[in-house]
Amino acid sequence: MNAESEKRTLGPGPTPDNLLHSGSEGEFTAEDLVLASGRDVNPKSMAWAERRLAEKGRKSLDELLP
């Protein structure tokens, strides 16, 4: 991949494939869980994600991803 293809584009449009990943095989945060759920990142959704991570651990992301 060249440097240009690794840049994240700002603005409307889909996320480039090279920036997408799925599964919970790596580390993830409450913010990742919020985004995977389709919610906006805000204090309420972050609190939801932190509770869900505390309750279900890694399974919390697996349940949201295909």
Short description:
The chain has 66 residues and is mainly alpha-helical. It has helices at 3-6, 30-36, 43-56, 59-62.
Question: Could you characterize what this model shows?
Answer:
By secondary structure, the chain is an all-alpha fold. The protein has a domain at 40-66. The longest helix has 14 residues, at 43-56. The chain has 4 helices and no strands. Helix 2 packs across helix 3. 44% of the residues lie in helices and 0% in strands. Residues 1-26 are annotated as: Disordered.
Tag the structure with descriptive keywords:
globular, disordered N terminus, 66 residues, 44% helix, mainly alpha
Radius of gyration: 14 Å
- Helicity range: 40-55%
What is the total tally of β strands?
A: 0
Number of helices: 4
Quaternary assembly: single chain
Region (Disordered): 1-26
List the helices and strands and how they pair.
Elements: H1 3-6, H2 30-36, H3 43-56, H4 59-62
Helix pairs in contact: 2-3
